[in-house]
Specification:
Radius of gyration: 22 Å
InterPro entries: Azg-like (IPR045018), Azg-like_bact_archaea (IPR026033), NCS2 (IPR006043)
GO molecular function, one term: purine nucleobase transmembrane transporter activity
Main location: membrane
Strand order of the largest sheet: 1-4
Number of domains: 1
Membrane topology: Multi-pass membrane protein
Strand content: under 5%
Shape: globular
Low-confidence stretches: none
Keywords: Cell membrane, Membrane, Transmembrane, Transmembrane helix, Transport
Number of strands: 4
Number of helices: 22
Length: 462
């Protein structure tokens, strides 16, 4: 038996209706759409981490290596243990909370913040092992489960449109149309987007990868030979990589020496809460996109991807980065046909490869890779057909879940809105029999979370 056949048999590729070629292509697609994290995560965290005798540029290089190792490790566990096409890396939003809120605003030492991430990961491992995480996720009301995919789609789309310069912030209207006729990035992005959508509509294999590649090439050509200036942002800049991560790896240990018990507990709780429901929403949403969910809207054997996520968070914190989580960009690989852990294994291998050569993320401009997010975001809108739109007790929690995600830039907030509203609406409609005690407990937990997160409780303790 050859290597390809052995790999196919190990992951059950044919049993899942896929092929080795499709899985590899799906892994490449996922990697290209999430590779930006290799650049973005270090940029966010470097502002919060200072090490005596080491420049910020060197710290950012170390963080790039740590980001790659953490992502590769977590995604490898997802591949070989969970056999799911989900990729992992330090999460956006969580890294901003780590750097801007915990270290910046609250003044908590970055080593202590890393200690909180490690504790959170260990808690996840224990709760996953005893089945508690799976139980909570299965408590998700049905309309929320079926709305998560669409909400994530809108969330992906707004991230992509913003990176492409099509949607911009506006002080009067919050969001507005960017200068699409004068911004070279927006012009090339729109051309690349419609090219990719056209390929996708024609069922061209690898359409998203082709779209990203062609868009990147167009940006390079018009910069090198056309009228566009080199500083217009159409070509990604090169990055340097250092392999010495010893100042970061293990730094969390010293963080336990600076712990104030109550503040530390609140920080752990906040990391825990956001990561828990971001991961849950991502797994359910991407699972819906891949038709992995059962008739109850549950992801079978969800404990395995949850354990991979918990291990990734723990390892990431030990190495020196913020919380590792399952990426919504995994939907791009799933839409390309990825159905098994071979897709995730491909992503992990590509992350490892980016340590040896110049990181692939540096060769793909952000606007080009984010075209995939818009394409998949549009495609994921079709998930709304699973919602019972003729039942207001489903429409309200589902609608809130879908709307709040993109408008608050948070998967967890969207899920919170849906779950908190479900028992209230069911009770008001006289359908008390549909509400379980666990639904009220979850709703109350979200109220506590919002008080901690937005009520200044953390700041008052520092």
């Amino acid at each position: 038996m050859g290597l390809v056949e052995s790999v196919s048999d190990y992951f059950g590729v044919q049993e899942h209706g896929s092929s080795v070629r499709t899985e590899l292509l799906a892994g490449l697609t996922t990697f290209l759409t999430m590779s930006y994290i290799v650049v973005v995560n270090p940029a966010i965290l470097a502002g919060a981490i200072s090490i005596e005798g080491i420049s910020q540029g060197e710290i950012q290089s170390m963080l790039a290596v740590v980001t790659i190792i953490a992502a590769a490790t977590a995604t490898f566990v997802m591949a070989v243990y969970a056999n799911r096409p989900f990729a992992q890396a330090p999460g956006l939003g969580l890294n901003a909370f780590f750097a801007i809120t915990v270290v910046g605003a609250l003044g908590v030492p970055w080593q202590t913040a890393l200690a909180a991430v490690v504790v959170e990961g260990l808690l996840f491992i224990v709760l996953t092992a005893i089945g508690a995480r799976e139980y909570v996720i299965n408590l998700f009301p049905e309309p929320v489960k079926f709305a998560v995919g669409t909400g994530i789609g809108l969330f992906l789309a707004i991230i992509g449109l913003q990176a492409m310069g099509i949607v911009v912030d506006d002080p009067a209207t919050l969001v507005a149309l960017g200068g699409v006729a004068s911004n070279p990035v927006a012009i090339v992005s729109i051309l690349g987007l419609f090219f990719t959508l056209a390929l996708y509509a024609r069922d061209v294999p690898g359409s998203i990868v082709l779209g990203i590649a062609v868009t990147s090439v167009i940006g390079w050509l018009v910069t090198a030979f056309g009228p566009v200036a080199p500083d217009a942002g159409l070509v990604a800049g090169a990055t340097s990589t250092t392999y010495d991560i010893t100042p970061l790896a293990g730094a969390f240990v010293s963080g336990f020496g600076n712990v104030e018990a109550f503040t530390f507990s609140l920080i752990v709780f906040t990391f825990f809460f956001v990561d828990f429901f971001d991961t849950a929403g991502t797994l359910v949403g991407v699972g819906q996109a891949g038709d992995f969910l059962d008739e109850n809207g549950d992801l079978p054997d969800i404990d395995r991807p949850l354990m991979a996520d918990a291990i990734g968070t723990t390892v990431g914190g030990m190495l020196g980065t913020s919380t590792v989580t399952t990426y919504i960009e995994s939907a791009t690989g799933v839409e390309e046909g990825g159905r098994t852990g071979l897709t995730a294994l491909t992503v992990a291998a590509l992350f490892v490869a980016s340590l040896v050569v110049v990181p692939l993320a540096a060769a793909i401009p952000l606007y080009a890779s984010h075209i995939a997010l818009v394409v998949i975001g549009v495609v994921m809108l079709r998930n709304v057909v699973d919602i019972q739109w003729d039942d207001l007790t489903h429409v309200i929690p589902a609608g809130l879940t879908i709307l709040v995600m993109p408008f608050t830039y948070s998967i967890a907030y969207g899920i919170a809105a849906g779950i908190a509203s479900y028992p209230v609406i069911k009770l008001a409609a006289g359908e008390r029999e549909d509400v379980r005690v666990g639904h009220w407990v979850l709703a109350a937990a979200f109220v506590v979370y919002f008080v901690v997160r937005t009520g200044g409780v953390l700041a008052a303790q520092v």
